[in-house]
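Quick start: load a record and inspect it. Here is Methyl-coenzyme M reductase subunit beta:
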Amino acid sequence: MAKYSETIDLYDDAGKLLKSGVSLEKISPLVNPATRKLIDLTKRTIAVNLGGIENGLKTGKIAKGHILGRELNLDIAGNKDAIVAKIKEMVQVEEGDDTIIHEFGGGKLLLVEVPSRRIEAASTYDAAVTAVASATTYALVDQFDISMFDASTVKAAIWGSYPHTMDMVGANVSSVLSNPQNNEGLGYALRNIPVNHVVMMTNRNAMQGAALSSTLEQAGMFEMGNAIGPFERAQLLAYAYQGLNANNMVYDLVKANGSTGTVGTVVQSMVERALEDKVIVPGKKGGYFQFYDTKDPMLWNAYAAAGTMAATMVNCGAGRFAQAVSSTLLYFNDLLEHETGLPGCDYGRVMGTAVGFSFFSHSIYGGGGPGIFNGNHVVTRHAAGVAIPCVVAAAALDAGTQMFSPESTSKIYADTYGKIDVFNKPIQQIANGV
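Running the structure step on this input writes:
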């Protein structure tokens, strides 16, 4: 028996119907098999840059440093098959388990799926990156008969500056997840993925990027206890409408406003849609002002989340700039509250997030562009999974205005994770899983 009586229709990034009459709980990270696979692979998939290791050793540029006289000229590319075989033999728990090594770029890049049993037998997900880093280190030492005096150089080319730094600065093995010590609270691991990584994993597709980001953010909501009891429905609705284009709402709003529209016209279109769907109804009048009422504030919040996403795509898409995302998050919801008398997205928390975000991303402080933020950041963590997906959409539509472009910070994720369907086409994968 369905947990929730209401159903949604799921559409793709081209406005095509994928599944109709989907019970709300079927998209839950706890239920949907595609989402569970996505989260599972996020935890146990590690990228290895063999080309980067070879170049770093050849030049002595390792672990973000340059050590003259410690260069090693190893033909890693020419011995790639033997090295990959050694890595797999050491990483797997037993022959025939779910260890998989994908090769990209002629074998210069690897994507290693460590066996599930390594994660099951660990307290945290860093068991994946440590196993792969250690196996890669030993594979090179063994293959090239590296002496005890040069083994530390090989180690530094792979692990980066760890353990001199808490995280693996300058490493040539990387997880999409940050190391656990960087998570600023319980359940933040899946939210601690930079916007630019998600943009690259979804090949700059704004709607797929928003869907992947929303999936990770909302899975984080479940992990930190925000989706317990009646709040589960609130999170699932926001996820469905904003991230998964439920009832084609985001697509319809963008299509209606994409040519000549503004943030303000998206507000109008969204309020009209809410009235048509009877999510809100006219309430009392205060002078010339028409207040609106809703009997379902959770569903209204989901509509506001979808509207916030559509406004971001319209505004940042028109200018091809990511920098406007913070002001769009703020003023779409400010206008929406003034138009209806109802709370904006996430009951005001998106507006609050946007104020700090605009300052820290590109105002007087100017610490960096929107693409290097994540849902774990002290500035952007406050909205319950509905702000960062908009930032991903904006960064996907950006045409090079950021100081830190996705290509400069996250190209390896496009060349590895971006080749895997569960990451690059989450909308279709999740719909297939219901």
